[in-house]
């Protein structure tokens, strides 16, 4: 006897516990969000970075063991920069642990215009996003124009499945940069 299987509807998981990130491995979950409130010193540092260095960009493939030194050298020394570097390392370490890898693709960038203004899916397996300053990433459950548009918050650590995720039980997350020209500091991490 054959049974027809249909793809499960996409689901999102949100929690103030970091453990929610492991739910990304559930077949029907395509977005897991750890909702966090960041320390004021980190938020102040991110805002200063946006104001003082509007063209700041750090983009590298890096071994997790080399990340602390890279961040020490690349992130400007501002009040609160130690907290920012520590948080970036925490995000990278959690992603590396979840995906059982020693290397990550890192992009930390000040953006003053939308990087990806149209809803799209990424052609990767998984991406971690954190907005440290400015408006955060917008997302929706599917490609339909009638799907509700949602928005992450500053500090949220979001894991988004991409179209290269090995199990195709649910669609990749459709997301975009928010509209407008308010500067934002965005971290993206990809497992390598």
Kindly describe this structure.
With 192 residues, the protein is an alpha+beta fold. The chain has a single domain (11-191), classed as B-lactam Antibiotic, Isopenicillin N Synthase, Chain (Jelly Rolls), CATH 2.60.120. The chain contains three helices and ten strands. The chain has helices at 40-52, 67-74, 81-99; strands at 11-15, 29-34, 57-63, 103-111, 126-133, 138-140, 150-151, 157-161, 174-176, 184-191. It has a seven-stranded mixed sheet. It has a three-stranded antiparallel sheet with strand order 7-6-9, with no helix packed on it. Helix 1 crosses helix 3 (81-99) and helix 2 (67-74) runs antiparallel to helix 3 (81-99). 32% of the residues are buried. Residues 1-8 have low confidence and may be disordered.
Summary tags:
single chain, 192 residues, alpha+beta, Jelly Rolls, 7-stranded mixed sheet, 3-stranded antiparallel sheet, 3 helices, 21% helix, 29% strand
SSE series:
EEHEHHEEEEEEE
Kindly state the percentage of residues in helix.
10-25%
- Mean pLDDT, to the nearest integer, reads 90
Q: What would the CATH topology be?
A: Jelly Rolls
By CATH reckoning, the class would read Mainly Beta
- Overall number of domains: 1
């Amino acid at each position: 006897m054959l049974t027809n299987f249909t793809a499960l509807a996409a689901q999102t998981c949100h929690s103030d516990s970091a453990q929610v990130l492991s739910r990304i491995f559930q077949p029907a979950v395509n977005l897991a969000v750890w909702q966090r409130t960041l320390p004021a010193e980190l938020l102040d540092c991110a805002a200063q970075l946006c104001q003082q260095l509007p063209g700041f960009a750090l983009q590298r493939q890096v071994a997790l063991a080399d990340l602390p030194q890279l961040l020490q050298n690349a992130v400007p020394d501002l009040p609160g920069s130690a907290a920012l570097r520590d948080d970036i390392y925490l995000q990278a370490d959690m992603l590396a642990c979840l995906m059982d890898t020693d290397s990550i693709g890192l992009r930390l960038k000040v953006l003053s215009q939308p990087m990806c203004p149209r809803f799209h899916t990424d052609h990767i397996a998984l991406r971690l996003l954190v907005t440290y300053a400015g408006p955060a990433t917008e997302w929706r459950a599917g490609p339909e124009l009638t799907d509700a548009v949602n928005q992450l918050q500053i500090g949220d650590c979001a894991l988004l499945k991409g179209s290269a995720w090995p199990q195709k039980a649910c669609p990749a997350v459709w997301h975009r940069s928010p509209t407008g020209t308010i500067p934002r500091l965005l971290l993206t991490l990809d497992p390598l």
